[in-house]
Design a protein that fits this description.
Blueprint (H helix, E strand, L loop, with lengths): L9 H9 L1 E11 L7 H21 L4 H16 L11 E7 L2 E7 L6 E7 L3 H8 L4 E6 L4 E6 L6 E3 L8 H4 L5 H20 L6 E5 L3 H8 L19 H31 L4 E2 L2 H9 L3 E7 L6 E3 L5 E3 L10 H11 L3 E5 L10 E5 L4
Parallel strand pairs: 5-8, 10-13
Antiparallel strand pairs: 1-2, 1-4, 2-3, 5-6, 6-7, 9-14, 10-14, 11-12
Length: 359
């Protein structure tokens, strides 16, 4: 069964990062792609809605504001049957008076609710960091097709205007190599109409020498390096998608390993930090280049305008979470945030930062 996702774009994420209101509700819950199983998901959402309302009321929120948010959440959980037909692996919901948006995500996230004066974005960043989706270019001398694959299910073939049919169609040149090179260039040119603006990885399914020819003319910046697999003329789309997912796992593992190596190198130069209080201050002043944050960590508290941390015993509508706010400040300062699992963070803390300069 196909998976339906709507991961926020860069502009949508920026709006969530900068949005503030007296009371913002962020809800995450795991979901099922099989419609018959979504009744359980809707029950979970009802319970999370109840928790959100209790937190809002405990914080002294205006009754009309509480009613507005509760009505939107209740409508989604109880009345919007059509919405639940197409789901992914998790659902993110952001609600405040006069604002309500949802995002279906390809990652398995833990059910949670956060209420504060800003949205809780760390779990959302997991989908942005590792979307588990990719384009697949199935290319041979005799055919070409572009597929879009998600974390599971069958891929979908994407219609591409002006895509050449095969190498013979591309050129009348009698020299085979020149004809195939012209074919590769036309494929690359046609793909721009679809891929421009995308940042998903492009995985090439092609045999040699066509793979090398295409790589020599490719202009898409997110083509995955040297991981071709199989002959697309003898593989089904489902087989190509399964192979692409294995490649994506390797790509993501390589990214995390490279960051761990960089962290080790920079640590000796005084350009790393793992202390929460240090990173709160450093993120406030734009010193963090790359932040690794534990997707499941929660450090209740808040950060002042000067970067000073005030810790709390538990999450509530005032204490919005220190690690989440550090991530928000790093992103707003132009840094990179990777939401990862605890085992991927150096020195075992909830956060680790690579700094732009020695401080």
């Amino acid at each position: 069964m196909a998976q339906h996702t709507d991961i926020p774009t860069g502009k949508e994420l920026e709006k969530l990062l900068t949005a503030t209101a007296d009371h913002c509700v962020s809800i995450y819950l795991p979901t099922h792609r099989i419609t018959q199983e979504t009744d359980r998901d809707r029950l979970v959402l009802r319970d999370l809605t109840r928790q959100a309302v209790e937190q809002l009321e405990a914080a002294g929120a205006d009754a009309d504001a509480v009613a507005d948010i509760e009505a939107d959440l209740a409508h989604l959980a109880e009345d919007d049957d059509e919405f639940w037909v197409n789901q992914a692996d998790s659902l993110a919901i952001f609600a405040s008076p006069g604002r309500f948006e949802t995002h279906r995500l390809p990652n398995h996230l833990t059910a949670m609710v956060e209420v504060s004066d800003r949205y809780h974005i760390t779990p959302l960043l997991r989908a942005v960091t590792f979307p588990h989706a990719a384009w697949i270019l199935a290319l041979s001398q005799g055919s070409v097709r572009l597929l879009e694959a998600g974390p599971s299910g069958n891929p979908e073939e994407v219609r591409v205007e002006d895509m050449p049919k095969d190498a013979m169609q591309s050129s009348g040149n009698k020299v085979v190599r020149a004809r195939e090179a012209a074919y590769a260039r036309k494929v690359d040119s046609a793909l721009r109409t679809v891929l421009t603006g995308s940042d998903l990885p492009l995985i090439l399914a092609a045999s040699q020498p066509m793979a090398a020819l295409y790589r020599s003319v490719n202009t898409y910046p997110h083509l995955v390096e040297e991981r071709e697999h199989g002959n697309p003329e003898t593989s089904t789309d489902a087989e190509l998608a399964d192979a692409a997912r294995a490649i994506l796992d390797d790509v993501y593992a390589d990214q995390v390993a490279e960051l761990a190596d960089r962290f080790g190198d920079l640590s000796g130069q005084g350009r790393t930090a793992t202390d929460v209080s240090d990173l709160a201050r450093l993120s406030t002043y734009g010193a963090v280049d790359t932040l690794l944050v534990d997707i499941d960590a929660s450090v209740p508290g808040s950060i002042g305008d000067d970067g000073a941390v005030t810790l709390a015993d538990a999450d509530d509508a005032v204490n919005y979470g220190v690690t989440d706010e550090i991530a928000r400040r790093v992103l707003l300062a132009g840094g990179t945030v990777l939401a990862v699992r605890a085992e991927d963070i150096p020195e075992g803390g909830p956060v680790a930062g690579l700094l732009r300069f020695v401080v």
